Amino acid sequence: MPFRFEHTCEFTEERYVSLGSEDFEPRRWRGVLVLVGVGVACLFWSYSFLLGLLILALAALARWPHLMLPHSSRETYRWSPYLGEHATYGLNAKEIWLSAPSIEIRVPWPMIYVWEEKRGWLRLHAYNAPQFWFPVGGSRKPAFTMS
């Protein structure tokens, strides 16, 4: 019997943004605080003042990675009409697909380069294709409605 899985979902803007947001782990907080401390200490000596400014700028970029990205999840939602539509995501042994009123796309497995579990959902991403979302846990609260 061939393997096949499909689910239909519709994103709201807030739910899509919450899925796209990065979790900032406490472990990373410590690293950023150490960078800030070193940067502030460098500001007290004239020879290391510019190094201190550079370190503080790097600490700010480490804390807010979305500043380095060309656009946010909210803008992606607004630019992609299929995200607000009832979309069917599916997969089988050969390919994954997305079907919505404004888009129809099929991608073979070798084209997938991102596999990430996030908040109870598996995110798959292929070259030059939208993201594919699949639920992975029955005990977790779904991030968007399924029908």
The first-level CATH class of the largest domain is given as Mainly Beta
> Mean pLDDT score, rounded?
79
Q: Which segments are poorly predicted (pLDDT under 50) over 5 or more consecutive residues?
A: 139-147
In CATH, the architecture of the largest domain is Roll
CATH topology-level fold name of the largest domain? PH-domain like
Based on CA atoms alone, the radius of gyration comes out at: 20 Å
Dominant shape: elongated
The percentage of residues in β strands lies in 25-35%
Strand order of the largest sheet: 4-3-2-1-8
Number of strand elements:
8
**How many structurally independent domains?**
2
How large is the count of helical segments?
A: 4
Query: Mind summarizing the main beta sheet?
Result: 5 strands, antiparallel
Structural class: alpha+beta
Helix and strand sequence: EHHHHEEEEEEE
The amount of helix comes to 25-40%
Cα separation of the termini: 24 Å
Could you explain how this protein is built, in words?
With 147 residues, this protein is an alpha+beta fold. The protein has 2 domains: 4-21 and 71-146, PH-domain like (Roll), CATH 2.30.29; 26-67. Helices cover 32% and strands 31% of the residues. It contains 4 helices and 8 strands, in the order βααααβββββββ. A 5-stranded antiparallel β-sheet has the order 4-3-2-1-8, with no helix packed on it. A 3-stranded antiparallel β-sheet has the order 5-6-7, with no helix packed on it. A hairpin with a 2-residue loop joins β3 (95-100) and β4. α2 (26-42) runs antiparallel to α3 (49-63). The longest helix has 17 residues, at 26-42.
